[in-house]
Amino acid sequence: MTGTQDSGRTGERRAMSVTELTRRIKSALETGFSTVEVEGEISNLSQPVSGHLYFTIKDEEAQIGAVMFKGSQRLLRFVPRNGMLVRAGGEITVYEKRGNYQLMVRTLAEGGQGTLQARFEALKKKLNEEGLFAAERKRPLPLLPQHVGVVTSASGAAIRDILNVVTRRFPNLHLLLAAVKVQGDGAAEEIAAAIDRLNAIGGLDVLIVGRGGGSLEDLWCFNEEIVARAIARSRIPVISAVGHEIDFTISDFVADLRAPTPSAAAELVVGCKESFQASLAELQRRQMAALRRRVDALRHRLAQAAGSYVFREPANAVARHRQRLEQADERLRRRLRDALQNRQQTLDWVSVRLQQRSRYAVQEGRQTLQTASDKMAYTLRVQNQARRQDVKRLTLQLRVLNPLAVLQRGYSVTRLDSGDILKRADQAPPGTRLVTQLADGWVHSTASGSSGRGQGV
Fold first, then answer.
1. If you ran DSSP here, which 8-state letter would residue 421 be given?
2. What CATH number has the domain spanning 17-113?
3. Are 414 and 446 contacting, i.e. CB atoms less than 8 angstroms apart?
4. Which residues are paired to 241 by β-bridges?
5. Distances (CA, A) of 101 to 33, 83, 188
6. Domain regions of the chain by residue span
7. Contact, 436 vs 445, CB < 8 A?
8. Which of 49, 67, 170, 254 is the most exposed place for a label (fewest CB within 10 A)?
9. How far apart are CA 2 and CA 4, in angstroms?
């Protein structure tokens, strides 16, 4: 089928209207692709007040718009999210007013995690484990910054929103723009270099890094590791202001503060000038009121003092106080005398008691000493007598047991030269020298020949 038709006159063709061409394309697509099933990653997801879901299904090389009306969502078993891998079933339709085709989704099944979302989660986990998201790293913003650095596109909506807020709230604030690409190839490297460059310049109080809203792909440069590490090493506090309020990037987690939009970031940096002025005026009013109350209180105290009896009749007041002082002095003297008398009486009584106890103690001590001395003397006499009796008894026993006592009765003891007692005859062969002990002395002899069992001397 051609794009023109005969008009009824030779050589002339009638051009189709845009509506007619679009409807023919719509008919061809919807007839040829009545039912399709496609797998891809969700992007640019939105759900207006109507409740319908609008999103893009994409892979690494292409994308297609999709819509899922509210009525078809009854069968959903999960909540669709950007970056989610899904399998969508439905029909191809053409939206005539815009002339683009889209997939009208009837069924939607969860298929896993998309490539970009997987990269996002992996980097988020890595940096979190390194401590780049830790709350103790976050630095507070200065109260009244004078110089603010902005890292964003020079032609984007973000810088216009920031300038609008600053001009309205604090027109004398100094802004330094580091213009960079905020999407596409090389954008992450430019953003990281700009952050380092502004730190090197110095003199800035805070940095705003961000851009306006967009798809996950548009915002991806703020999910790159090079940008996250540049924010982390910045010596200047950093506000991350990327996309809309529902958008979250790695930069948001690393930055000292996240702002939902670039406009909100500007509002966080520069408080309203009128608000500061109103606060200062209120503080001044409260200070003046406090001073007036203090002055009034002092005046009242002065008036009371001036009208008091002391100031009206000072001589009487002095006399009254002198009388009180004399009375107090007399009471003190009387109490001191009474106390001294009591102490003296107590001392005398204690002295008498000590003297009595000392006499009693000496007498008791002497008596105890005498008794102990008598007991000791008696004990010594008894023990002496017992020891003498023991000596006599032992002496008698020694006399009885003494082997030499028998010599007095005519017996003798013969010994060899070695000193051993001669007990048998065979101990003294002929020629053996012998010594015989008698009661009154010793006899020396020599053994001679034998006779029977005995031997002669």
1. B
2. 2.40.50.140
3. no
4. 210
5. 12, 22, 33
6. 17-113, 119-271, 275-306, 316-401, 408-455
7. yes
8. 49
9. 6
Q: pTM for the whole thing?
A: 0.47
What CA–CA distance (Å, rounded) separates 345 from 250? 94
Contact present, 59 and 40 (Cβ < 8 Å): yes
Residues 6+ apart with CB under 8 A from 146: 173, 174, 205
State the pLDDT confidence band at 451, using cuts at 50, 70 and 90: very low
Residue whose entry in the numeric block shows the structure tokens 């023109």: 4
How does pLDDT run across 272-308, given as a tens digit for each residue? Answer: 556 677 788 888 889 999 999 999 888 888 887 777 6
Residues with Cβ < 8 Å from 284, sequence gap 6 or more?
none
Q: Are strands 84-95 and 36-46 parallel, antiparallel or unpaired?
A: antiparallel
Superfamily for domain range 119-271 = Succinyl-CoA synthetase domains (3.40.50.261)
Place of tokens 């502004």: 198
User: Is 179 exposed, middle or buried (CB count within 10 Å of its CB: 0-12, 13-18, 19+)?
Assistant: middle
Q: How many Å apart are CA 148 and CA 325, to the nearest integer? A: 74
Question: Checking DSSP bridges between strand 206-211 and strand 238-242, what pairing results, if any?
Answer: parallel
